Structures are given as structure tokens and as C-alpha cells.
Amino acid sequence: MPITRKEVEEIALLARLALSEAEIDLYTRQLGDILGYIEKLRSLDTEGVEATTHAVPMDCTLREDELGERLPVEDALRAAPRRAENFFEVPRIIAAHDEE
Amino acid sequence: MGEARYQAVIGLECHVQLQTRSKIFSGSSAAFGAPPNTEIDPVCLGLPGVLPVLNRRAVELALRLALATGCQIRTRSRFARKHYFYPDLPKGFQISQYEEPLAERGAVEFRFGDEHKRIRLTRIHLEEDAGKNLHAPGGAGVSLVDFNRAGVPLAEVVSEPDLRSAAEAGEYLRALRQLVRYLGISDGNMEEGSLRCDANVSLRPLGAHQYGTKAELKNMNSFKFVEEAIDFEIERQQRLLERGGRVVQETRLWDSEKKVSHAMRSKEEAHDYRYFPEPDLPPLVVSDQWVSRLRRELPELPLARRARFARAHGLPDYDAGVLTAERELADYFEAALGSGAPPKKVANWIMTELLAHPDGTQRVAPEALGELVGLIEQGTLSGKMAKDVFAKMFASGQTARAIVEREGLTQVSDAAALEAACRAAVDKNPKQAQQYRAGKTQLLGFFVGQVMKATQGKANPALVNEILKRMLA
Amino acid sequence: MNLCERSASELSALIARRQVSAREVTRAHLDRIATLDRELGCYLLVDQAGALARAEQIDGLIARGLDPGPLAGVPVALKDIFVTRGIETTCASRILKGWRPPYEGTPSHRLREAGAVLLGKLNMDEFAMGSSNENSGFGPVRNPWNRAYVPGGSSGGSAAAVAAGLCAAALGTDTGGSIRQPAALCGVVGLKPTYGRVSRYGVVAFASSLDQVGPLCRTVEDAALLLEVIAGPDPRDATSIAEPVPRYRDALGQGVAGLRLGIPKEYFVAGIEAEVEQAVRAAIRKLESLGARAVEVSLPHTEYGIAAYYILATAEASSNLARYDGVRFGHRAERPVDLLDMYCRTRAEGFGPEVKRRIMLGTYVLRAGYYEAYYGKAQKVRTLIRRDFARAFEQCDLIVTPTSPVAGFALGERTEDPLAMYLADVFTIACNLAGLPGLSLPCGMHGRLPIGLQLIGRPLDEATLFRAAGAYQAATDWHTRRPALG
Ligand SMILES: [Mg+2]
Ligand SMILES: [Zn+2]
């Protein structure tokens, strides 16, 4: 079994998915199958092969530093599940951890 | 700190907001201080379907900093996604650089007391800022999110753990601020968050080579808080180690009111950023031509300018340091010298009079200050009169000469009185009079000065000149 | 004349010549949708009022002697992955239910600028994850040829709607075969262009390094016409290719004399349905009879494609889907006890099982310490697969394969075994990994179900695909067959 139930639970937390017990069981089995299949890559020698990030080689096109169309605040907030005045509202953030 | 049995090892990670018009990946304004959620667009809000397009100017500004700190610049650098969930992070990931950053291996140099410090930089990379979470007043159980700041370009400057004290860290940070302001890439305002700093602090026994376990300090939004928080951390770790405890790797937040730091403890802190290359942005290619153009356009940097001021203008190092603290002030000083006024005198006037007013350089043009100093030099104005004139210049924006003339501050022109004053000056200085007559006519200025002194600077210099020339003929 | 059987090219010509009004054409399609789609489930949203208003606008332009563009009055529909300003866009996910975007994406904008009339938004596998359209959050789509069968996926609604005459043409997206496979299963023409040929701005991302937009149509000519309209550089997409867009329709009549067809031996192996293989071999012979020459080529890393694909696609998906967090738009769980609870329940409630499975897999392979073993490794495999194609294209001008190993499968037949479902993408995935253009067109029938022929070209060489497909279509009548409906 290439993946444990505990790993599935850890990943669910990382991915912010509340899974039921039944889902955890199901994914433990199914992800195990898929990861088992993926194992076949191990047998392939890729020593010295460069990675392909973009299938078609391209350089980064840059934009000039110009102001573009901005989104009116009402248009932005219309879709918000909850708003408070002109802010998006979320459940209180416990740890004051504002910067990365 | 108690007796020094431990050495502090400090590295800083600084975020510099780059002064672009628009955001790093989209067209809404990067300006500070707009009403909440008014400077946003679909891209910086991370709406489904949007794509980032890199702002050329953000790259240029970061490159300026990389060049000014002597970094090696990568011809091809890459962006990566750094994942974590947080309400102010619209896409659930930050576009940053991870492997293959824009620039590596530079240094920030500065004076620390009498020492010249060179703090190595690990890297400088580009990334996007997040929005801002506000905590609703009254503990309403909610937080509020403003995305104006989301997508503002940042240069992250990561130092090697080369710093050894809180004071040194403070000076490093001031030097970095000075540098970004010189380069015109950021206003470096810590209170407004355009310069932010996290510190990694660890202790090791004196003489040891291995690093100890570090704590990461966050939430220090002024130079003072950075120094206080680092000092606090050094003491905390020292006490811990002395009692036989061990430091745990953790993130600690500085509480600037209580002057203590708290460990962040939350499940959300168990980060696994799951970096991978940003598929929406091909590699950033920085050509040699681009780099050499930017290198040519670099201004003279603070330390070099300071040294030149001392050397070329004969200024004490202290004066040179004050005058080169800000690029604008250094420019002001050099503009004031244009009139030919003596540099040290101009420096004194700037440091004592002009800088006493926060808006001094705005209110008094550098040429006007130079002229004022020149008038003192010529003896047209006494020092005391000059201060009055300066106050009027400051209030009215007029030039020294205009004020002097309008107010008739000068210049006793009564012929008999001036005759007497000139006679006295010649009589009191027979040696100089003799030298003058022997051909050293530049001594005329000396006699003019004597007359000016005797008349508190009010003698009409033209008349005095005429009378003296006749008397000494 | 049945307006709903005409091709897009025919309709735009008829409308431009005022032989029929755009309004009539639109009305006919809306009526057909009202009659047939309850059972087929192609549309998630029909914008009746908007479509009629736009059609009248087009008629007005023509009446005033103005040129409304190459798609004048052509009724089109979009896979619901395309962001349309003010028109609900869900990606067939409950997490986006009710979302009315405040902006318009580039592909849909270009279609409309060309005079197309947007009928509505088409069903799909949720977030384009699936090969059967059974993963839609809003119900399955049925194959118009046999309603017990799936239409393929993820652009199942697009393929079925085009096949059933519920629109003249549609746009889909293709990350691992999501245009070509449903095109094959529904008997229409589907094109996945070169990666970067069409802007992805305003296309909800599944796997950014693999996703590409393309047309689904009833004729090769229509596919060429639509590609001319939607292709080309876009300053809003840094991965869009700067190359100018050729007039692809010019390639259609050029014939295949002298073209070398690469037949990859790794694609004709066990697992492929006999009828599918026979139809594809017959199509190759047909092309040879028209002057092309078949050569055997080898794509030795084919067997690693699916494994590499499911690492890359799920990793990127887990990242792209992190933005569905209940903060700015879309679903949010009721009464969360705290922030973490809000995230976890919002996403658990909003995403369907296949999306969750892929987010889980993608999160797993990106975890600290796993990158080199999975994502990094898969990117290297990608390089090997690209090299395979580069070598093959030294010996041939295009590659010919089946689109799908089977002509179709019944609803519910494969839902229990996701791995088996993934393995069925074997022939389409390599195009996405290598960024190459691929086109599927009808080449036979297996009972009541159509069979698809896949043509794969060199990067940016869509023209050669159109050339071969055009010649094949001119010499055969598979594309003229329509399912019996109504
Ligand atoms: Mg960092
Ligand atoms: Zn950072």
C-alpha cells in the first residue's frame, strides 16, 4: 500500500478538504492504486534529462507599467459570500500572521 | 545581555515594495492608501481564469537593487508558486521565485561606528505582495480583507546570517532603506509597510562554528521594534540556554506595546509550501544589454558619495555622512555649492539651520542658500543678520539678495561714516596695507571684511571698496 | 432547409447574404435546444434573451451594409469553463454555482467580436476533470448517438451539442484529450491547437501547462474558421505564442499528395477495440489512396505518458483550485466555527469526488521531499516524450492514430474505477505533454457509435492537420452522418 490512511488525512488538511471517514477510506485505496501505477516511472532512467516546464519553448513577455482597467469595488464584492462594508468578511483569523 | 558567553547570529529577510504605477502582474494601481478594495482587478483578486503578466518596471527596479548590491544576475530566472491558505492570499499561492531567483550573492555595505560592515546577501528575488487582513473592532468574531495591496511588487532581500547584534541589524536595515531610496525604487517606509523585515535569530557558544536553532521574528514595523525584538530574542534564548533548555524552531510575533514576543502556535502554521515552477510565466530572460543599461543608469551610491564629499569638498566624515543620508539632500548640497560658496560653510548651514526644519529643502532653494552663504563670506551680511535673512527666506521663498535689498538691511552708505571706518581698518592693519600697496591687491577683501565687521555687516560694500581702493592707492 | 444541420461556414454566408436572418437561425437553435436538450443535458445555461438580442444586432449591422465578421450570426456555445461577463460561469462545479464573472475571457471575446451569437454555456466534467462528462456537478450529458452512452469528456456537452445540432460550433478545452476524445465519441471534428496558440485568459485553469482551447465543429472547414478567429497572441497571456495566424482554410483544398503519415507502432497494441483499429487503418489507406505515404514511426515513451500526465495535471490542478476558498466568490459553508473549518467544509461541499481525488493526488506529489520523485520526474518524462515526437517528425509530416481506444462506453460503466478511466486517455495525452496540435475527425462507425481518427502535427503546424483532414473529409462522408434525434 503506497499511501497510508494517516497520509491521506494529512494531505486532506493541507488541501483544506474536510473528508468523511468513508472518503478517507476510499481515497486511501484509490490513491494507492494510482500511485502504484505511477511507480512505473521509477524504472525509467531520466539521469541528465532536463525538465520541460513549457512544452513550447518561450520567453516571458513583459508588460509595460501602465494602469489598466480596474474592477469597481461593487463588482468585486457582489460575488463575495460575506461582506462588511467594502471588505470581504471571513471568520476571525486567530494568529496575527499578516506577512509571508 | 549578561556576560557574553554566546554569540548572536542574525539574518534578515526584508521585503521592499517597489514603486511601480501598476501591480506586478496586472494593471490596477499599486498606490498606497486607497479606500478598501478600490485598487483591484480580476488578476490580483485571483478570479477564476486570470493569468499573470509580468511588469517590466518591477523587474527593472529589482535589478537596480541587485546591481547596487553587487549581485550576480541570472540571465534566466524562474517564478514559482508557494502555496498556503490565508484569506489575504487570493489564489491560495503566492507567485514568488524559489529555485533560480533573479539575483544572488551580493552584499549590503555600511558604516557601523568606526567599522565598515559588509553583510552578504544570499539572494534578491521578485514576488507579489498579499492583501491585508484587518481585525474587526470589538472582537466581532470576524476579520476583514482588503486586496488593494495584493499584487504590489516586492523585492525580497535575504541576507546571510552575518549580523551579530540588534544594533548591527538596525544599521543594516537603515543602510538598505537608504539604498532603496537612493535608487528610487521604494520609499522604504517601515510604518506603512513598504519596507518590512523578518529576522532569523539564533545563539551559539562563543567560538563555536555551528549555528544554533533559530527563531523567526515577525511583525516589527519600525527600526526601533526590530532592534527591540532582536534584543529581546537574544536575551530570551540566552536565558533558555543558560538554564539548560533548548531553543525550538518557531515563528514569534513581536508585541511592540508589551515589548515581548509570542510564539505563533496554530495548526495552520505547519506549512508545506509545495513549490513548483509557475506554468503561467515562462522564464524571465534578462539580457546583457538590459543589465548594462541599468548599470550605467545607477546613481552614485551612498557610501561612495560620502567618501567623495569628504575627499573633494574637504568635509569631516561626520558631515559627509549627514549630507549623504538622503540622495535629495546630497543633491541639494551640491547644487548649493554652485555659487562658489565654501563647502564647509554650506554644510554647516544645511546641518544647523536647514535641517532644523523638516521641509527646509523644499522651502529654500539650494542656489538661494549658496548665495546667502556667499553674502556672509563677502561680508555683506554678518552671521546674525544672515540668520534673520534665512528666516525670511524660509517664510517667503525669496532669495537672500532680494531680501537684503528690499529691507535695506545693509549697508551704511553715509560717506563720512564709511571714510572713518575705512581709515580705522587701514590704520589698524599697517602690515596688510603695506602688502597691498606692494601689489597683493587680493587683500582688498580682507579690508572690506574688517570694515564689515566694524559696521556689523551693514556697510555698503561698493562704497567701501571704492574708498579703500583710494586710501590704499 | 434545416438550419440546425448547416455548418458554421454555411450559416455565416447565408446570413451575410441575407438569405436567412441571424434571428431565424438563433430561434431555430433555441427551439431545438428546448425540444431535445432536456434529455441530452448539454446546456447548463441557455441565454435566450441575450442570444436573440445579439442576433438582431447582427441582422441590423448587415442591413446597414456593415460587416459583422466571419462568424456573422453563427450560433455558438461555450463549454462552461469560459469566463463570460455577467453570464453565470460554473465549470460544472457547485463551488462556482451562481458566479457571474465581472470580466470576459479572450476566446469568448474573440468569438463574439467575429459576429458569433452565444447561445449558452455547455456542460462538462467538473473543472474539466474527466473523460465521460459524468463528473459534472449538475448531471451527466448523454451521447446523442446512443443515450445510454457517455459523450466523452471533459468537453462532453460541447461535443454532444455540436453533434445534436444544438449549436453550429462550440469551444472546448483540452488538457489530456478533452476536446478530441468527446469529438471522437460524438462524431464531430475537434481540434486541440499547439500549446499557446489560443489565449487561456478567461479560461478557468485546470492544468496550466497542458490546457489549450479549441473548436468543436461538424466540418473541418468550420474548425479552421473558428481557429482563425480565436488564435493569436494575447497580451494578457504570457504563454500565448507571438506567431501570426495563417489563413488555415487555405490548407483545406491542398490535398495530401506527398504527405508522409507517421503510424506509431506503440499506438496499435492490445486494448484497442478491433472496430476502432479497422476504421483507423481504413482511413490511413484512404489517405494513401489520395497520395499520402504511410511510414511506421516509434514513440518509445508512450507507455509513460499517463503516469507523467496524472502527476503534472493533478499537481497543477491542486494549485489552480486553491483559490476556491469561500472568501471572494462562490460557495461558502454555512456557520463555520473558525477559518480552518470554513476552508475545509467549503471545499468539501463545493467540489465533487473526482475533483477532490485529483486535488489529493496533486497535493501528495508536491509535498516537501516528493518533488523530485514525482513532479520533477514527470517533467523529465515530458522531455523524453517531446524528443520522441521530434524524432518521429524527422520521418513524417503528421502522425495518425485512433483518438480513443474504444468507440464509446456506457454511462456508469467506468465510474467505479478511476484508474481505468485515466488509462483510456492513452492516445490523446501525449499531444498535451508535448504541446502539439491534435485533431480528431469522424472516420467510421461501430454500430451506432462514431469512431474518431486523430491527426497529430508539429508545433504550430495546424495547417498540415487541416490539409489532411480536409482531403479526408472531401473523400468520405462520415462527417455528414447525424444521430437520429427528436
Ligand atoms: Mg522568505
Ligand atoms: Zn517573501
Q: TL;DR?
A:
The complex is a heterotrimer of chains A (100), B (473) and C (486). By secondary structure, chain A is of the alpha+beta class.
Task: Describe the structure using short key phrases.
heterotrimer, A: 100 residues, alpha+beta, two-stranded antiparallel sheet, 3 helices, flat, disordered C terminus, B: 473 residues, 9-stranded mixed beta sheet, 17 strands, elongated, binds magnesium ion, binds zinc ion
Structure description:
The complex is a heterotrimer of chains A (100), B (473) and C (486). With 100 residues, chain A is an alpha+beta fold. Chain A has helices at residues 5-14, 21-38, 73-78; strands at residues 62-63, 83-84, 87-91. Residues 96-100 of chain A have low confidence and may be disordered. Chain A contains three helices and three strands; from the N terminus they run H-H-E-H-E-E. By secondary structure, chain B is α+β, with helices and mostly antiparallel strands. In chain B, the strands form four sheets. Chain B has a nine-stranded mixed sheet with strand order 3-7-8-11-1-12-13-14-15. In chain B, helix 10 runs antiparallel to helix 11 (383-396) and helix 15 (444-454) packs across helix 16. The longest helix of chain B has 20 residues, at 223-242. The model of chain B has no long low-confidence stretch (mean pLDDT 90). Chain C is α/β, with parallel strands linked by helices. Chain C has a domain at 3-254: Amidase signature (AS) enzymes (Alpha-Beta Complex), CATH 3.90.1300.10. The radius of gyration of chain C is 21 Å and the shape is globular. The chains are: A alpha+beta (100), B alpha+beta (473), C alpha/beta (486). Chains in contact: A-B, A-C, B-C. At the A-C interface, helix 1, helix 2, helix 3 and strand 3 of A face helix 9, helix 10, helix 11, helix 12 and helix 13 of C. Strand 1 (62-63) of chain A pairs parallel with strand 2 (54-55) of chain B. The complex binds magnesium ion and zinc ion. Zinc ion is lined by residues 15, 96, 127, 156 of chain B.
